[in-house]
């Protein structure tokens, strides 16, 4: 049986990756290693927590001693590394937390894997999950390719760029088996309501303002989270050793247009008169260092690995809104803080 250690599996994207692997590969054992920070929520994995091929391990990747002992005990054959501090706004107020988890934590994992694999890399793989933000910002034209030079601007993207460099350095220096994926903005179920789409869904439900930074013309490229999980599965199994793959769905939206579309769908689903939710849109002070535009050229993964997203943006957004409407308990637990007791209830 192949043993795969997934970090950050209690978070937004990690929970979808864990579910994809637990369901699709009964012959694998999936270890979900997560510190359960504010962003970690084991309620995201309630449906698979009792599966025989799944084990949760509460641990902090910044603690090298603990991480090494976990690797020695469980001897994973592969790592899919998603654990991170992920929110740009938080990185502006507390950059060091991002250095600790995203940079030091990644190096701790590389060292722990390198120590147990002992230069025998047959059948081994370290898949590092990264972001398009490492490329910096685009002007009004062009796309990020795998060859675009790194030019991070926020403390978050600087920490992710640093971690990507370490992963590639271990490949180039030690022949360590790695693959790196750089994905665009994700949306979907289980998204923590500090990020634009779930924040707006939450605020529409509660008749609160929808804060739009600056003039709202900043552009992001959105991918449904399950399509990111599918792409990770594909690259993990078939990506070239030492390779990099951009992941995206050619789906750019200016923030203001996206929020207006969200308002439209929410009004329809809530049976409110058209235009009701859009009245909550409020332009607020811009994010410092705000990158203007991200857009992924996903040609490489499309052509080399035959990857295509499974849903259009309209479908994915509709599924996402329905999920939040049908899982208001999840949202209540997150906003009240009650979700942080789930670990104690399940794993004490
Ligand atoms: P998230 O914030 O929802 O989840 C992060 C998870 O990591 C949480 O479960 C948290 O408890 C865990 N974690 C944080 N610090 C830890 C530590 N020190 N030790 C162990 N676990 C720790 O993040 P996400 O949005 O799911 O992003 C997952 C990964 O994907 C990140 O590496 C992020 O950079 C990358 N990414 C995210 C997006 C996006 O749109 N959200 C897009 C591209 C890439
Ligand atoms: O591009 C990939 C990245 O996407 C990931 O690496 C990050 O982990 C993830 O958080 C996300 O970063 P963004 O900063 O793009 O996501 P966020 O949802 O915070 O913001 C999306 C856009 O909306 C961005 O231009 C800022 C803007 N925004 C955000 C918030 C929270 C607003 O206008 N108002 C808001 O309240």
From TrEMBL:
Needed cofactors: NAD(+)
Domain of life: Bacteria
CDD domains xrefs: dTDP_GD_SDR_e (cd05246)
GO-annotated molecular function: dTDP-glucose 4,6-dehydratase activity
The entry's keywords: Lyase, NAD
Reaction it catalyzes: dTDP-alpha-D-glucose = dTDP-4-dehydro-6-deoxy-alpha-D-glucose + H2O
NCBIfam families the record matches: dTDP_gluc_dehyt
Entry's family note: Belongs to the NAD(P)-dependent epimerase/dehydratase family. dTDP-glucose dehydratase subfamily.
Protein name as it appears in the record: dTDP-glucose 4,6-dehydratase
Originating species: Sphingobacterium suaedae
Organism ancestry: Bacteria, Pseudomonadati, Bacteroidota, Sphingobacteriia, Sphingobacteriales
Protein's gene: rfbB
